[in-house]
Amino acid sequence: MSRQITNILLVGVGGQGILLASEILSEAAMLAGFDVKKSEIHGMSQRGGSVVSHVRYGTEVFSPIVPEGEGDILFGFELMETARSLPLLKPGGTVVANDLQISPPSVLMGEETYPAGLAERIKTQFPDFLLVDGQKMATDAGNVRAANTVLLGAVSKRLDISEKFWLRALEKMVPGKALDINKQAFHMGREL
To answer: Is 51 helix (H, G, I), strand (E, B) or coil?
Structure first.
């Protein structure tokens, strides 16, 4: 194993399952034998505010915070939050983003407009970009709330963690009644 640390940022708004996704990601990395550190930042997350979770893993990790400009993967649950977090990525980093727009209060009140063309702007800056219709795929799997697991599946293909560890982490972290739908959602994301 190299001493390289993999830096992953999960960003979106409250209520999107970001914290569960970061728990599953951290658990899968631990099961694979990596040292893992995780940190969350909640900005009024219960009211639809920003949520950022940092997950770092490798042979030895000292800090849970991804230094600005050193993120390997930006895992975005909402497009504006994804675009806002691009400075955290290193040049040539990977972006996996949900094709979803959630208008913040300033847009809902007519004070601002939601930026147009965000996906195109992200792709121009980071060519390794995958846009995922997480809501549709999760609905196809049986529950729109499994969009976070669809995205996790898409990200899992870009990490050096075996599928068996991802499935074990899902089994440990997802409630039994939702496990089958989440496993299906995960596999749909992996196939992208």
So the answer is: strand
Domains and CATH numbers, the chain: 6-190 (3.40.920.10)
pLDDT digits 0-9 by tens, 88-119: 999 999 999 999 999 888 888 999 899 999 99
Residues of the chain with pLDDT under 50: 1-2, 45
Q: Which runs of consecutive H residues, i.e. helices, occur in 46-190?
A: 79-84, 105-108, 118-125, 134-141, 147-156, 163-173, 176-190
Does the CA dihedral 181-184-189-192 come out positive or negative? negative
pTM above 0.85, yes or no: yes
Report yes or no: 1 and 63 within 8 Å, Cβ to Cβ.
no
CB 10 within 8 A of CB 53: yes
